[in-house]
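In full, the data:

***
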Amino acid sequence: MYTGNILDPIHGLVKLSEIEKWVLGQRPFNRLRRVKQNTFLYLVFPSSNHTRFEHSIGVMHLAYQIYLNANQNYDTGAYKRDKYEVEETNSFKFFSTREALKEEEKVFLQELRLAALLHDVGHGPMSHKFDEFTIKGSDLISILKTDEDFNDYIKYFELFLKGKEASKIDHETVSCVFIIKIMADLKKTARSSEGNFNKEQNDLIEKLDARRIIKMIEPTFQAIEEIEFDGVNYTDFFTSIISSFPLDADRMDYLFRDSYFSGVKYGLYDLSRLFMSFIPVIEEKKVSLAIKESGIDSVIRFIQSRTHLFNQVYFHKTNRAANCMLDYACRGISNTSLISAKNYDDFESFYWKYSDELFLWDLLKEKIKNEKECLVLDELLERRLWKRVYQKKIVTTPSDKYDVARKLKDIREKISFNIKKLENDGIDVAIDTFPNKVFKDYDKSKIKIVKKVDPSYELMEDWRSFNKELKILESETYIFRIYLRRTFESPKEYIAIKKTVLKTFEEIVKILDSIE
C-alpha cells in the first residue's frame, strides 16, 4: 500500500509506502539531501544543485515501473498467443514474475524498491571522490564488530574484502553496511511500541531480507548465493533492473535528471518506448530481464543520449577543471583516511555530519597542511578555476581503440616528469584524460535481447554483434586537457606562460595531434 507522495520534477507524483517513508528519515539516507549528484557541475550550470536524495527516489520509481511494465508486456504477449493459438517453441519461455512469485510478490517488490532507493546510500561527501579518503577494509571489519546488528554478516564482509583488507573501501561497501543497519533498525522499530506501522506492514517488514536487498545492488556480496523462490533463480532479473548495461533504472534517472537541472537537452530519450520493450524470460530455471528487438532503436537512442551527456556536460572543461583542482589540493593527503571512528556509531556520525560544503570548508581545510595546496583549495572555493591551455578530443572505433589506449598509456608515463619540470619553474599545471566508455560495464551485463526468428524467438546476449548500428556505438572518447593555474596577471603574461607549457609538452602534443 502506497500512502505517501513526493512531487518530483522529473517523474511527477512518486508514491511511497509507509516503509519507504520511514527509510527517508533515517540518518544514513536523509543525509543524501546534502550530497550533490554531480559534485562541481553547479559551477558550470548554476541550477545543477540536485542531490543523491532525489535521484535515489527517482531510481526507486523507475525500478518499480520497469518491473510493472515488464510483466504487463508479458500479459500482452500471452493474450496474443492465446488469441491466435500460437504455441511457444523457443528454447526459453516468456515469464510472469507476478504469477510465479504469487503472494510473495509484495515482499520481493518492496525489496526491489528499497534496493533501488538505497543503491547510493554509501556515497560520502563529494560522492566518488570521497572513496579516496575512506578507511581500510580491515578497519571496517573492526568497526562492524562493535555492533551486534552485524554479527551475522562479519564473515561475508571478510569474504567480500578478501585480498583488499589494506585498501580503502568504496561506496558500494558502505552501502552494504548502511542497508544492513537500516533494515535491522526497521525491524526493531516495527516490533516496538514506537512503530506506527499497521499489522499488514509489520508482517511485511518481518519478511524483508537485507541479504536479498544487497544482492540486488551488489551481486558479489555473498550473504546469499542467489535470489531464489520456488526453485527459480531471480538474481539477474532484479539486479538488471537497478544496474546493468545498456540501460537500467539508475542510468535512466540520472540522464533525465541531470539534463533537466543542467538545462541541456542531451540526456533525453523515449522512456515510454523503453517501458514497452522490457519483458521477463526464463531459461533453465533462471529468470532474466530482456528487451524486445522492436525496442532496439530506443535503446540505441538511450546509449547515444548518455554518450552526448558525458561529452557535453560531465566532461565540460570547467567541471573537469574544478575536479583537477580538488585532486591537486588533496594530493598530499590522498592516502589518508579522513574518517576517525572506533565504533559503528562514530562511523555513521561522520557520514551524517559531513555534507559536500562542510567537507570542503571544514575538514579539508583542517587536514591540508601544504601552503600551496591550501591556496589551490581556496581558489576552488572562490571559483578562480584553472584555465585550459590545450585540448584534444579523441573518438576511437572498435578497430583502433586498443592502439589509441596504448599511445595514451605511453603518454601518461611522460606526463609526471613534465609537470614536475614546470612546477620547479613556478608554473602549476594539471592533466586531465577522463575517458567516456560507451560500453562501460558491458561484461557485467545480464540483459538479453529477444530476437524474432519465425516462427519462434531466440535470446541473444552479445549486444555488440546484434546489429551494425550497435557495433558502431562501441567507441571510447578521450578528452585530453592541460590546465594552467591562474598565477598570471595579464593576457600578455598568460600567452607567454602558455607557450612555455606547450613547449614543455611538445612531444606529447605531437603524439596526440597525430591521432586521427
